[in-house]
Specification:
By secondary structure, the chain is α/β, with parallel strands linked by helices. The protein is built from ten helices and ten strands. Helix 1 crosses helix 2.
């Protein structure tokens, strides 16, 4: 079976519920080979995945995407990337660099990454983002942020076509601070993409000291995220073809049953409350 595309908010884009990225952290488990260009092709041809986080630094994903484009599939793909420098010139040049790396004349979603303050998307920056959309260099624009109240405010006021945010069983604050707020916009809400579904691999690990002898599966992590009606798509960072197949099978299984959903939420709380020393800065352990 193959994944079926669905709307990404009001963008007019159709995305598969699971998109493929390449930045993978799977906790303390043994390293795997990583995604290859062949895995990208397999994701498209075998699993129906049409949405890719195609950052030019993700060499394997970019090469796989280039192969799909050369094979005549550009119109079937949704290519997403971001720029981490919140100034107008890097916003433009960054997009141009991506287009050259991918061998295409446009992206589908272009994001200002890691927005921490409102000035990251000040007038000059957002005007350049809008210009890139108006000239056809990208079909949709948006931003990513870990600051949930700021993300909700900006998604309403910019406005943004797409919002990419952290959401998983251990970090559920988005349900209250983003989803509930943006639901009031109805059909005017931005498309929502979730990332860190496995909380950088920690949800895949057991918590024996807290009574959990088994972690979640990758498929369960994605199923939990996709259960929320405000989430249009979630990134998957499988490390191998086998992991990708298991993740897709998990999503195809549909929502978790109510009992398992409750177990997952309790396990997510345990993971959230587990101190990981130096990792706290990355994972935002202080924020639900």
């Amino acid at each position: 079976m193959r994944l079926t595309p669905r709307p990404l908010g009001r963008t007019g884009l159709e995305v598969t519920p699971l998109g493929l990225a390449a930045m993978s952290v799977r906790g303390t488990r043994a390293r795997a080979p990583g995604v290859t260009p062949e895995d990208v092709e397999r994701a498209f041809y075998e699993h129906g995945i049409n949405t890719f986080l195609a950052h030019f630094l993700m060499k394997s994903v970019c090469e796989g995407v280039r192969r799909l484009i050369r094979a005549g599939h550009r119109d079937e793909l949704v290519l997403v990337s971001e720029i981490g420098l919140p100034w107008a010139t890097p916003v433009r040049r960054g997009l141009e660099r991506h287009l050259a790396a991918l061998g295409t004349d446009h992206l589908d979603v272009w994001l200002v990454g890691w927005v921490r303050k409102r000035w990251y998307v000040r007038d000059a920056v957002w005007a350049e983002m809008c210009r890139l959309r108006e000239t056809g260099k990208t079909r949709a624009i948006g931003f990513t942020s870990h600051d949930r109240p700021l993300a909700a405010e900006l998604a309403r006021t910019l406005p943004a076509d797409v919002l990419m945010i952290r959401y998983n069983a251990a970090h559920r604050g988005a349900e209250r601070e983003i989803f509930a707020v943006l639901a009031e916009l109805g059909e005017r809400r931005p498309g929502i993409i979730a990332y860190t579904a496995t909380r950088w691999g920690m949800l895949l690990e057991p918590q024996p000291r807290r009574g959990y002898m088994h972690g979640m599966t990758g498929g369960e992590c994605y199923r939990f995220v996709l259960e929320h009606p405000m989430v249009d798509m979630v990134w998957c960072a499988a490390r191998s073809a086998a992991e990708l197949r298991a993740d897709v099978d998990g999503v195809l299984a549909g929502p978790l049953d109510p009992e398992r959903r409750d177990e997952v939420r309790a396990f997510g709380d345990a993971v959230h409350n587990t101190a990981r020393g130096g990792r706290r800065w990355m994972f935002g352990a202080s924020a639900r």
